[in-house]
Amino acid sequence: xxxxxxxxxxxxxxxxxxxxxxxxxxxxxxxxxxxxxxxxxxxxxxxxxxxxxxxxxxxxxxxxxxxxxxxxxxxxxxxxxxxxxxxxxxxxxxxxxxxxxxxxxxxxxxxxxxxxxxxxxxxxxxxxxxxxxxxxxxxxxxxxxxxxxxxxxxxxxxxxxxxxxxxxxxxxxxxxxxxxxxxxxxxxxxxxxxxxxxxxxxxxxxxxxxxxxxxxxxxxxxxxxxxxxxxxxxxxxxxxxxxxxxxxxxxxxxxxxxxxxxxxxxxxxxxxxxxxxxxxxxxxxxxxxxxxxxxxxxxxxxxxxxxxxxxxxxxxxxxxxxxxxxxxxxxxxxxxxxxxxxxxxxxxxxxxxxxxxxxxxxxxxxxxxxxxxxxxxxxxxxxxxxxxxxxxxxxxxxx
Length: 399
Ligand SMILES: NC(=O)c1ccc[n+]([C@@H]2O[C@H](COP(=O)([O-])OP(=O)(O)OC[C@H]3O[C@@H](n4cnc5c(N)ncnc54)[C@H](OP(=O)(O)O)[C@@H]3O)[C@@H](O)[C@H]2O)c1
Fold this sequence. Notes:
Number of strands: 11
Strand order of the largest sheet: 4-3-2-1-5-6-7
CATH architecture of the largest domain: Orthogonal Bundle
Number of helices: 16
Shape: globular
Bound molecules: NADP nicotinamide-adenine-dinucleotide phosphate
Strand content: 5-15%
CATH topology of the largest domain: Rna Polymerase Sigma Factor, Chain: A
Oligomer: single chain
């Protein structure tokens, strides 16, 4: 640590995104406890320039070198902020010596290498970047064992499970009397929509989540329920739980985020308003509790809580994620790569919403032999899936 009056330096990866904004909101409420050491993003120069003026990190990094150059110009009048770029810059932010805590808030597999680097350096790592766990969860968990890094989930469901578990992180879940983990799903904007109309879904409709305000990629994943599929994989990897002991329950109000069932018949649920500042504050301060600026849950006002089984027919991505989880790391890496390609094309206007699943299905059908469990091999495998999905797009895209 430096001689700063503030005890905990935090590096926020993906600082200009939705998780970044929620994290920085919580940090700003507690200047006596947290200070920003490093910030990272891709190419949002305006957003990053504003954050730099407000939080004065020692290091700021943009994945896109042109954006980094533009940011350097914009911060010309400020001293003490170094601007770096490229993949190495993201690693630099993730391993910055002034940061004890790293928030992994980059979207997609682009966040994997920085997340793993933070874990290998032994940081306290708050993981929102579920794609990193989907592509290389076993590597991340093994690296934490070796380095002693503390991993804390901030995906709301996984943070909910974490809060309902009895013991400290690191203890084998099988030894704690836990029988099942249950993730809730809102069902997204198309939970009740006539399946015959799904071909006409617009980007705006898919991004309009009924309960959560999030980035565009995760919003589309929530609409297809691939998000819940990715979270199922994330839960198995993070908590070391077999797939058959993790359930998904549709709960449209998003007030219960997760439940843990114990062998004595107890079920513990974690509840709260759908606001990411709660899981972020929980993980930042754990084992303490800090104010997150979140409205308190009012059950009388909420009135009712509904539950239903997920509909795998309406949401084929859920079945694809389950199949990939059964097939192993190579398949989950490929699932992620194909999904990122298909969702990006949908957001770009080139693919119908109801064909996202078809692109992923094509890719998984062509899966080559499983890769080795190394970072290089898993990334190469994910890249193969991206090329395969791009091929499949030629069949499905409509322009
Ligand atoms: N939002 C939520 O409520 C929520 C909840 C649970 C989990 N998560 C997970 O958290 C992650 C972030 O989600 P989000 O909703 O915050 O996404 P978002 O709003 O789209 O923000 C993404 C962030 O990642 C940065 N980024 C994108 N590509 C990058 C690259 N190649 N290298 C470095 N940085 C890059 C973006 O920078 P630019 O702005 O410069 O493009 C931005 O700062 C995802 O994995 C998501 O599944 C999100």
